[in-house]
Specification:
Elements: H1 2-5, H2 12-19, H3 28-36, E1 42-45, H4 50-58, E2 62-69, E3 77-87, E4 92-96, E5 105-109, H5 110-113, E6 118-120, E7 128-130, E8 132-136
Antiparallel strand pairs: 1-8, 2-3, 2-8, 3-4, 4-5, 6-7
């Protein structure tokens, strides 16, 4: 979705071949590195807050959050979602994220999301990263 917003045409299969590891999934570093092939402005922050999300959305950046998806109780795991909006008055996140348990756009209160806003960095779930957020300025597309 990030690439499409920026006008980069890649199939899901092409992207998966470049970034996906069957035994792990896609880590934060490879996602950032892959996006940096197409955009000049790609960055991240850990221990981010909803204030950080709002700041980047106001700048028009595409914001991606890495969080522990335990809403699908069959297979809790790290997951990435795009942020469509953050209502700072109601403290509600709108996430763009079709999955087995959710359809497309969905809303979650920040107080419910924040405890899940982490991911593990090792296969034994002993090393964690909290509040990982990546952003892309889609206007910074690198000419091909």
């Amino acid at each position: 979705m990030v690439l499409a917003v920026g006008g980069v045409k890649k199939s899901q299969a092409e992207i998966a071949k470049a970034v996906y590891k069957p035994w792990w999934g896609t880590n934060q570093q490879i996602m950032l590195a892959y996006l940096s092939k197409f955009f000049k402005v790609v960055n991240y922050k850990h221990s981010a807050t909803t204030t950080d999300i709002s700041k980047h959305l106001k700048k028009g950046h595409i914001v991606i959050l890495d969080w522990w998806d335990k809403l699908d109780e069959e297979s809790p795991e790290g997951h990435y979602s795009l942020v469509g909006d953050y209502d700072s008055k109601a403290k509600i996140l709108t996430l763009v994220d079709p999955s087995k348990t959710r359809k497309g756009l969905w809303h979650i209160a920040a107080k419910d999301f924040n405890p899940m806003w982490y991911d593990t960095l090792d296969t034994n779930n002993r090393t964690w990263i909290d509040g990982y957020m990546l952003w892309v300025d889609s206007t910074s597309k690198i000419s091909s």
